[in-house]
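JOB MANIFEST
job_type = single_chain_structure
chain_count = 1
residues = 404
[input]
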Amino acid sequence: MGCLKCFLNTGIYFAALIGFLAIVPLPPFNSTFTKYSNAPAKPLTGPLALNEKLSGGKRLFENELKGPEGLWYHEGALYASIHGGHVIKIVDDKIIPVVKFGKLCDGLYEEHICGRPLGLYFDKKGFIYVADAYYGLFKVNVNSTHMGEKEQLVSMTDIIDGKPPNLPNSVVVASDGSVYWTDSDSNHKLHDGLYTVFVDGTGRLLKYDPKTKKNTVLMKNLQFANGVELSLDESFIIVAETLKYQIHKYYLNGPKAQTSEIFIDGLPGSPDNLKKDGKGSFYVPLILERQAYMEIITNYPNVRMLVAKLLGIADYILLAIDSYYPNIYCKKGAHWVGHFESSPFASKKLSILKINEKGVITSSWHSTSGVIASICDIEVVGDKLYLGSPFNNYLGVTERPKDF
């Protein structure tokens, strides 16, 4: 009888806490929590069968750079976006600064000041387009005589369909100059990225028209909109919905123009940046493995709200203390509380998929060694395969598999 009473009391207290958090305006603000479910993970058989074709990788520039998120090879140099607000290029095993976004800051815990370039893309004229999570979308000249000159295309104060961008992430440029990009979440910054795991998605796929300098929302309410890539004939674009383990297809022309559909779902991990192979297929690195408990809580919005609110309260307290008694510990703590880098979801497995234009997985490459993991982007350079990650303090490289 005593155990039953204790159980009932605990249930009542928990329900009261849920009710209190639901009605009191605590962070995260402007977020909603509804029930949803993800497609079951595809079995690791056939083209998805595990192998060790990516084992034997090496770590380059360990502790010399942090978070090589976006990678691109151009005219003999490998370009990368990294923490600290920098895009760099690597030539003859040397790191050379190309352009700096943001302002001077005291450390990476102030990335909202430093700047954090994520996706990058070279157009056919040799300009590099960069999405910075805190400062917007830029077009950068990398010509030796004008190195680092940049033009801001989209600022963080531009109102697009009633909302300013909050987390610019990935970018791709069409042959007509149109720029397609993702705003991963309309309510949360990158340093609060962990909240996006629990709240309803507000990510967007957008198009920037260089002639009118206007943005159009093509898709919205995505659960962390991430990588984008155009099809070979540019008849459609695909966009990764990272936290739902799926990729969408948006038609740009033809009878289905301006409509979208699921390109592929049920992926065995979270898709990040996307790249075409030049032959009609797409490379899809999986940055995270699927977690059983994350599959469960999608069906329990109150539990997701509780976790998000508790994170928000911790964040709020640290920032409040710092506002009265400025100190590095509260700044670092507030940064840590909501950042993806503090999440328990890190993957030890390395996986890259190849998906054809019909949304069918045709090949996959893996490594379970843990030497290189949490990969978000790839770049093929000759017989080498370079591997980027927002979390790693090195650049990964491995021999390009013969069937890659």
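[summary]
The CA atoms of residues 86 and 249 lie 31 Å apart.
The two ends are 64 Å apart (CA to CA).
exit_status = 0
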